[in-house]
């Protein structure tokens, strides 16, 4: 299974080691001056600075700029806009479509990795986190400063929060964007504004679900939560010898179980993948409460599952739980995240998946997926709880009625280029065999092959038209553009 480590989930991004020099050869560099570190294509450090997380995609930014302060970000945006250059922020740098590099050639990239402040107010327990912080850094800092927590996954704080931010604690605490109290945003004209429910409220609505299209967020203010004292990590595993009928029955039993009234403290992710000539199936998650309560919750699920599964569970502190959720990888942020070469698609379900759909999916998996040379997995996150109690129009994130958010992911065998020709068709069929007509998808699992109508509908639904109106107000010249940015036209 593929995990994006907390250490790489930035609230910003991992800083590449670069040999940089001031960009002085055109109007942009003349405007910017020599005080802000800039890397251009002729620089020795450019290949490292422009390297994508997903090596299937390679783009050539016009420049990569490393601001030290929000004021520097403002200056970069002003200079780029004055030269007609598109601008994109790079926070964690884990966009599946390399939108942190513009998603196409010729953009100015604002790398936020030097914006690292984390300030926790111990009277309100609100935290101001600049968008250069990795989520691992934020989690450790909140714990060390006051045993506080936020619901998040394993990505950067910038893009992760701007497009949703789901994690194992989200059924308790909501999405990461639901904890946002305000955002400091550099607009297309270079001004730095605060967006909240009382200031620039329309912008505040938009940056919570579609933030990259409206400006560069330099810091978020989050309302933190007490870190749970009781943390149970659990797994139910089937070996790769499971049969097709067992696979179907297990998934159907899982869905029946989660559609009952479940405690918000219970989280679940279903993982399917290939290996050893067969499939593996795992149900795993957390419970934030007493072991006896967990045992009472999990017992009917175990009883409903077909034979062949094995349950394991362990109790730990909060940081140890996060490490376990992160695939036993350290929360340490000193090491750069390994790259990958992959393609992914996404699906959000709002109604129960029929048993016939499970069977159709199983037929593809057991006939085709077990024989591919690709390294692939599917992850299904259980939504609901606090996430579903927020109205669909309260933020730009619309998937409040989701049952599952699913990603379908396949890497080249050695995680290196080239990506095989059959990779994209394989992932496409991996999704289509379960749902041939998907209507919703999570924008953090961005799919660059979707048509404009598809991504606008699947990511934003009925919220898209309102987003275009706000885009015209705050970015009328489309400075913050990328292939799937919010458009100016309705």
- What is the terminal-to-terminal distance? 39 Å
- Give a quick account of the main beta sheet: strands, pairing sense, barrel closure: 7 strands, antiparallel
Q: Total number of β-strand segments?
A: 18
- What is the strand arrangement across the widest sheet? 15-12-14-13-17-18-16
Summed over residues and divided by their number, the pLDDT gives a mean of: 93
**Spans of at least 5 consecutive residues with low confidence:** 1-25
Q: Shape, please?
A: globular
Helix content: 25-40%
Number of helices: 14
Structural class: alpha+beta
Work out the strand percent. 15-25%
CATH topology of the largest domain: Vanillyl-alcohol Oxidase, Chain A, domain 3
Domains counted in the coordinates: how many?
3
* CATH class bucket of the largest domain: Alpha Beta
Reported CATH architecture of the largest domain: 3-Layer(aba) Sandwich
